[in-house]
Amino acid sequence: MSTRRGPGQYVRAHTTDIMLPAALVVLIIIGLVLFPSFRSVTNFFNILTFSSVLLIVAIGETFVVLGRAADLTVGSMVGLSGAILAVLSTTMPAVPAVALSIIIGTLIGALQGIIITKVRISFLIVTLGLYSILRSQVQVLLGGQSQNVDISWLQTLSNGYVGIVPNLVIIALVVFVVATLVLRGTGFGRALYAVGASPETARLAGIPVARVVIISFAISAFAASVAGILTVGTLGSAQTTAGSGMELVALSAVLLGGTRFSGGYGSATRTLVGVLFLGVLNSLLYAAGISSFWQGTASGLVLILAVALDRTRKD
After folding, report:
1. pLDDT for res 11
2. pLDDT value of position 314
3. What parts of the sequence cross the membrane (predicted)?
4. What are phi and psi of 142, to 5 degrees?
5. For residues 281 and 108, what is the distance between their CA atoms, to the nearest angstrom?
6. What is the pLDDT at residue 7?
């Protein structure tokens, strides 16, 4: 039996590829059987709403991981885009302020890709360095404290519903569908898989490897910036702690879903399953009365597990 690894490439299916969906089903069954609060419709939509912003960030991260790298700045970018919006919204109309905040974030992501590909510095060093810089700039822009951002249409977009479905869930699904179409049906998607599978082979085949990597980082930053703007809309303010720790959670979701850290194999669908697993896990911890302080421990353990599973997947 074989599974697709990018256009024109196949690898043997591995039992770990079905472990996460099975584990997700088991978690849901445990929740339904043991915790009455877990069975409520409200809890169901709470899980989806919690997962929506994370899914947007994680899908952007998926593009980078497919290209054989990782973006450790996405959490800081969530906070930075919100902080930029808070500053810009005091001097210009809301729509251009939102657009400019996202554009600035996307350009920073592209800059990361340029440094990595042109200066040839490890993505780990570049993204760790930018992680610290961006988180510092959030504090600088906000003066070390939260700042109210009163944009009514953004708050409606972030907190509103279409029927009983939260707008955030719809936005996240749109991002998921667009990402799936890009990865499966465009030349860029095919090039990204090829670069992740073997950068040197891709280069010899005429694929502009550097450009593909730069675009993947720009996409990741764009997604994180959108998530940051939606976070501001949800809270009605820009927070200095917005996005803190999200880089690890997003990477956990990507790797746990089955996208390989070695690049060239994975999909937005796999990331969706990883995000839902983390959302259900956090809901179960809450239903069981376990302190939210343990969520970081759970996320860290899941990240280690995800990398361990990634190591067991062999072509």
Report:
1. 43
2. 52
3. 20-38, 44-65, 72-91, 97-116, 123-142, 162-183, 204-230, 236-256, 268-287, 293-309
4. -95, 0
5. 33
6. 45
∠174-178-180 over CA atoms, to 5°?
A: 115
Which residue, among 225, 185, 261, has the nearest Cα to 60 in the 3D structure?
225
Q: What share of the chain is helix, strand, coil (3-state, %, to 5)?
A: 75, 5, 20
pLDDT for residue 69 = 96
Give the contacts of 66 (CB within 8 A, at least 6 positions apart): 183, 192, 193, 196, 216, 259, 263, 264, 265, 266
pLDDT of residue 103: 98
- Environment class of 91 (CB within 10 Å of its CB; exposed 0-12, middle 13-18, buried 19+): exposed
Q: Are 193 and 9 in contact (CB under 8 A)?
A: yes
pTM given for the model: 0.91
pLDDT number for residue 91: 92
Report the pLDDT value the prediction gives residue 288, as an integer from 0 to 100. 83
Strand residues in 177-260 grouped as ranges (E)? 237-238
Find the angle CA(213)-CA(229)-CA(283) to the nearest 5 degrees: 90
SS3 4: strand
CA 126 to chain centre: 18
pLDDT value of residue 37? 84
Distance, CA of 286 to CA of 24 (rounded, Å): 17
For the chain, list the domains and their CATH numbers: 13-312 (1.10.3470)
Calculate the CA 106 to chain-centre distance.
14
Contact of 129 with 123, CB cutoff 8 Å: no
Beta strands in 36-188 (DSSP E): 147-148, 161-162, 165-166
Q: Low-confidence residues of the chain, pLDDT below 50?
A: 1-13, 315
Among 296, 280, 297, which residue's Cα sits nearest to residue 20? 280
The CA distance from 298 to 278, in Å, is: 9
Which of these, 42, 68, 27, lies nearest to 209 by C-alpha position?
68
Cα 145 from Cα 134, distance rounded (Å): 16
**Nearest alpha-carbon partner for 109 in 64, 162, 45, 43:** 64
**Is there a contact between 196 and 11 (Cβ–Cβ < 8 Å)?**
no
